Amino acid sequence: MADNVAITAGSGTTIATDQLTGGEHVQKVKLLDGTADSSTAIAGDATYGLDVDVTRVGGTVATGGEVAHDSADSGNPLKVGAKAIAHGTNPTAVAAADRTDLYANRAGVLFTIGGHPNAITLEYRWTTAQTDSVVLVSTGTKIVVTRVTVTIDEATTVGVGFRLGFGTSALSTLPTDGNTGSAIIASHQGLIPGGGITIGDGSGILGIGADDEDLRITTDAATSGDGRLCVTYYTIES
Predict the structure, then answer these.
(1) Domains in the chain, please, with CATH?
(2) What's the whole-number mean pLDDT along residues 91-120?
(3) Per-residue CA distances from 13 to 2, 8, 37, 64, 202 (Å)
(4) What's the predicted TM-score (pTM) here?
(5) Secondary structure, 3-state, 115-156
């Protein structure tokens, strides 16, 4: 099929066309840059098409990230915005796995909650002396501790020392001098009866065990009373 049509204009002019299967002709048009009296053509790219100034495009322009979730990271980061809400506002909950807005106050400060969405708190009680006793077992994951509270019963007649940390079979030995006691989260020479200690508030990480390292405790006996340990933690894959 012949694509072009001859137009008689003086000695004759050929107009570039594309002939359709029905015999009709569609004229081919070259895009110019729009400047008055200019014949400069807009050059395209064989892969990406035409360069477009999106600031001149009306309506909504949808954009997407360069990399899908759980794919190798690459490219440059994008800035994100948040929806401003007043203090005291209770946003409407969305369904699990739905997309949700980030919220900030009217000054743009984000409302955030520290910690892990599945933080767990357990209680461990002892009366007799403990040596490398297992508080929490790790199986194929790492234990991440975010808060520790140890209290001693007022009825206890002696001070109670303890060491809390990670180990596959035992805690690291107590150093005599220097900083050689690795993987220890909390330690005290002797908590007084009725006393206690708290480390962390659950929003930060106090310690992370290695793969399959259990959380363990070594303590003095809580004579005539008991000692209690509360640990807030979550587990995570390697």
Answers:
(1) 1-53 (no CATH), 79-112 (no CATH), 120-236 (2.60.120)
(2) 92
(3) 16, 6, 22, 46, 81
(4) 0.69
(5) CCCCCEEEEEEECCCEEEEEEECCCCCEEEEEEEEEEECCCC
